[in-house]
Specification:
Layout (H helix, E strand, L loop, with lengths): L1 H12 L15 E3 L4 E6 L5 E8 L3 E9 L4 E10 L5 E10 L3 E8 L2 E11 L2 E11 L18 E2 L5 E6 L10 E8 L3 E9 L4 E10 L5 E10 L3 E8 L2 E11 L2 E11 L18 E2 L5 E6 L10 E8 L3 E9 L4 E10 L5 E10 L3 E8 L2 E11 L2 E11 L18 E2 L5 E6 L10 E8 L3 E9 L4 E10 L5 E10 L3 E8 L2 E11 L2 E11 L16 E2 L6 E5 L10 E8 L3 E9 L4 E9 L4 E8 L3 E8 L2 E11 L2 E7 L31 E5 L5 E5 L5 E5 L2 E5 L4 E5 L5 E4 L17 E5 L2 E5 L6 E6 L4 E6 L6 E4 L6 E7 L2 E7 L1
Parallel strand pairs: 1-3, 10-12, 19-21, 28-30, 37-39
Antiparallel strand pairs: 2-9, 3-8, 4-7, 4-9, 5-6, 5-8, 11-18, 12-17, 13-16, 13-18, 14-15, 14-17, 20-27, 21-26, 22-25, 22-27, 23-24, 23-26, 29-36, 30-35, 31-34, 31-36, 32-33, 32-35, 38-45, 39-44, 40-43, 40-45, 41-42, 41-44, 46-47, 46-51, 48-49, 49-50, 52-53, 53-56, 54-55, 54-57, 57-58
Length: about 800
């Protein structure tokens, strides 16, 4: 009881504001931040313990001030280690003067301060001051000491943290953050140390396929702000680490991202092989990226596929952007074994490059773009130009005489040569014509575009079914004509052959008949003679042939009823040159003969006995008609009616169903021909004719027989790329045509009578188009606007 009373008396005796110090760290008395405590040390009481609370990373300053005769030893700051053992953070010898020390790298926590007597006795004051690192740089969110603990680092956002602060031995020396790269582009990491902090390398990492960190780049920072940019980052999650080199303080870290370009979005991956190729539409810019990498998976080539709808020119244009350097851009086709074969290629580098393959046939092709260096976006474009809208392709297969396609009399057919997919170039096309009578074959042919023709040749089959040439003509790049004037009836075969280049050709077959009906064959022997009546003039043909069976002689039989004078007259025409005209009796005795040549010849026999006789007319050379009669003067023989050009299977004006989409050929306001769009009708022009081809037929219309072409209003649902629009109104004004009611911005094309595209214009936003041919040479032109085609003449 006396001890308790004594203790109470001692406490009451303490000065106001003085706290009793602890005698050990376990009993230490708390000093508030910015506060102080007073104590007394003497020979009997040599040390006092206090504790302080450090609220965050910062600087701790302890100040000790002895009073009177008191001499102080070291004042010391402690922290507890993991085993609860005190470990000194710093200390200061005080002596008899005020002394202070600052520990600049204190981490948040409870610390212990001890004030010790060195000699003398008396009072002292101990003070605790704290200074936060900076209110501008709050600490990072711990734990983030490994990449697995990495905290998000948002784009374009300053994130702060601290380094170099320690409680005892748990100093924070590195912090991890993760960033999300949304697409290919540039990643910039900026680190800024503050206060006394000295930073080591700031580094950007990516994880490899085995989840091992791989460095993408790094930057030594030190005590100054530093930044580095990785220009070729692919989309993905990356990790950023900041490391302390020395000192302590706050830091700022920032992640900025710059997309490759908003104008050049990335291509649709995967497309790294031809099997993965993505569609490349015609006349469309498609963009992609090269050179971006996460760790070691850099995209270095992209594949696209294109659909070539018909024979024509394929142009591939590649344009690198940014720092991208492109290797060869290449066009491929698949061979029969599904192996890629190059059609052509172009080195691109850092500039736009294009190449054109002029002889592509219909099919699927593959385009590859390859990276040579750098990184950035690219643009790739596929453009197509058909051989000619005026010259449709021939119907394949027709590469042999056995597969020859029929070309009707008076018609024109167009075709293509020199186009190919890989190694299947079309180098020859065969057609067959039917000759109904003796006469002349005229073939007119013309190469178009870059086509160079070899010999165009006409054949006949011999008795062993072997082709034998009747005539041929070298064309090259110029129009050509073959005239075979002495053809007999039969089927002939025409071959168009490529010599070089590629393009379209047109071939027209015209037949000119002999004006007179021929003699009835066979009459090549006396036994097969044709009866010839007295005073009757007949016409016969000699010199015409199919292959080697030329008709060189004709026989006629006459009956002389009474003895007297018999006169035989013969007259060749055209190119026919006759040998002898001879009269034989029934015993093959020559009664009389006459050389004729190219002039009219006459045989006169007096006192010829009654009986049956035979006239032999023999060819010497040439071909043509001869007239023959006896006992009369040669008189006029009625000519044959002209053979008209053959119709090319025109329809019998079928009336379509209401829902049928049709191409309509207007031959008059009331006479129309209909072609279903499902049969893909196509109109071309050649030698003044309209050639209409469908999947089922080919029809030739004389230019003057057609008023216009239109589409039915239900065409929108019939075939792709055909728009249902009302028929535009047309107003003709001399050598101008004004269209109203066209589709806005639609194309208006002007063709020559031969089918060549000579000008292209466009309707305005209101659907009005004014077409003038005043600047063109005189002639007839065809103007096509929307679903209307009209003719206009330039005088």
């Amino acid at each position: 009881m006396k001890k308790l009373q004594l203790l109470l008396l001692m406490l009451l005796a303490l000065p106001i504001g003085m706290l009793a110090a602890g005698t050990s760290w376990q009993t230490a008395t708390l000093i508030e931040k910015g506060g102080s405590a007073k104590g007394t040390l003497s020979n009997d009481h040599t040390e006092d313990w206090y504790k302080i609370q450090v609220p965050e990373n910062g600087e701790v300053t302890i100040t000790s001030t002895p009073h009177g005769e008191l001499d102080l030893y070291y004042t010391e700051l402690y922290a507890l280690d993991s085993e609860n053992i005190l470990r000194s953070r710093d200390s200061k010898w005080i002596g008899k003067q005020e002394g202070a020390f600052t520990v600049k790298n204190c981490a948040k926590g409870t610390y212990y301060v001890v004030v010790r007597r060195n000699g003398g006795s008396g009072e002292y004051t101990v003070k605790y001051d704290f200074k936060a690192t900076s209110s501008d740089y709050p600490d990072d969110n711990e734990p983030n000491n490994t990449w697995e603990q990495a905290k998000p680092l948002p784009v374009a956002t300053n994130v702060t943290g601290h380094f170099g602060y320690v409680y005892y031995n748990d100093m924070d020396t590195e912090d991890w953050f993760k960033i999300e790269v949304p697409e290919n582009g540039e990643v910039t990491i900026t680190s800024t140390p503050h206060g006394e902090l000295d930073l080591y390398y700031t580094e950007l990492y990516a994880l490899d396929s085995e989840n091992i960190l791989r460095s993408r780049d790094s930057k030594w920072i030190g005590k100054e702000q530093g930044a580095f940019t990785v220009y070729n980052c692919a989309k993905g999650t990356y990790y950023v680490v900041l490391r302390r080199n020395g000192g302590q303080g706050g830091y700022t870290v920032r992640y900025d991202f710059k997309a490759t370009s908003s104008d050049y979005p990335d291509d649709n991956e995967p497309n790294n092989t031809w099997e993965q190729a993505k569609p490349l539409p015609v006349a469309t810019n498609v963009t992609g990226h090269f050179g971006y990498v996460y760790y070691n998976n850099m995209d270095t080539e992209d594949w696209f596929k294109i659909e070539v709808p018909e024979n024509g020119e394929v142009t591939i244009t590649s344009t690198p952007h940014g720092d991208l350097d492109l290797y060869y851009t290449e066009l491929f086709a698949l061979d029969s074994e599904n192996i890629l074969r190059s059609r052509d290629s172009k080195w691109i580098g850092k500039e736009q490059g294009a190449f054109t393959v002029y002889n592509c046939s219909k099919g699927t092709y593959y385009v590859v773009l390859r990276r040579n260096g750098g990184q950035g976006g690219y643009t790739v474009r596929y453009d197509f130009k058909a051989t000619s809208v005026a010259y449709s392709d021939d119907t394949e297969p027709n590469n042999s005489w056995e597969t020859a396609k029929l070309l009707k009399r008076g018609n024109t057919v167009t075709g293509h040569l020199g186009y190919f997919y890989y190694n299947d170039m079309d180098t020859e096309d065969w057609f067959k014509i039917e000759v109904p009578r003796d006469g002349t074959i005229e073939l007119n042919f013309e190469p178009h575009g870059d086509l160079n023709l070899y010999y165009t040749e006409i054949y006949a089959l011999d008795s062993e079914n072997i082709l034998r040439s009747r005539d041929s003509k070298w064309s090259g790049t110029d129009p050509g004509e073959i005239v075979v004037p002495d053809v007999a009836p039969g089927i002939y075969y025409i071959v168009m052959r490529r010599n070089g280049g590629q393009g379209a050709y047109s071939l027209r077959y015209k037949f000119i008949q002999n004006d007179y009906a021929t003699d009835s064959e066979p009459n090549n022997t006396k036994e097969k003679s044709i009866s010839l009546s007295e005073c009757v003039t007949v016409a016969g043909h000699l010199g015409y042939f199919y292959y080697n069976d030329r008709d060189t002689e004709d026989w006629y039989k006459i009956i002389v009823s009474a003895q007297g004078i018999v006169e035989i007259n013969v007259k060749p025409t055209g190119e026919l040159d006759l040998y002898y005209v001879t009269l034989y009796d029934g015993n093959d005795r020559n009664k009389a003969s006459k050389w004729v040549g190219k002039e009219e010849g006459k045989i006169t026999i007096e006192n010829l006995e009654a009986g049956t006789y035979y006239i032999n007319v023999t060819r010497n050379s040439g071909y043509g008609t001869y007239f023959l009669c006896y006992n009369a003067t040669i008189s006029n023989v009625e000519k044959l009616d002209p053979l008209p050009d053959e119709e090319s299977d025109k329809p019998d004006n079928p009336t379509p169903n209401d829902n049928d989409a049709c191409l309509i050929v207007w031959r008059s306001e009331t006479q129309k021909d209909y072609y279903l769009l499902t049969e893909k009708p196509k109109i071309t022009m050649s030698n003044g004719d309209f050639i209409l081809t469908t999947t089922n037929t080919t029809v030739t219309y004389k230019f003057e027989d057609v008023m216009k072409f239109t589409l039915s209003e239900s065409s929108a649902t019939a075939i792709e790329d055909v728009k249902a629009v009302s028929e535009p109104s047309v107003e003709r004004q001399s050598d101008r045509v004004v269209f109203t009611g066209c589709a806005p911005k639609s194309v208006v094309r002007i063709y020559s009578i031969g089918g060549q595209l000579v000008d292209t214009q466009w309707a305005d936003e209101n659907g009005r188009a004014e077409v003038s041919i005043s600047g063109l040479t005189a002639g007839v032109y065809v103007v096509k606007a929307d679903n209307v085609t009209i003719k206009i003449a330039k005088r």
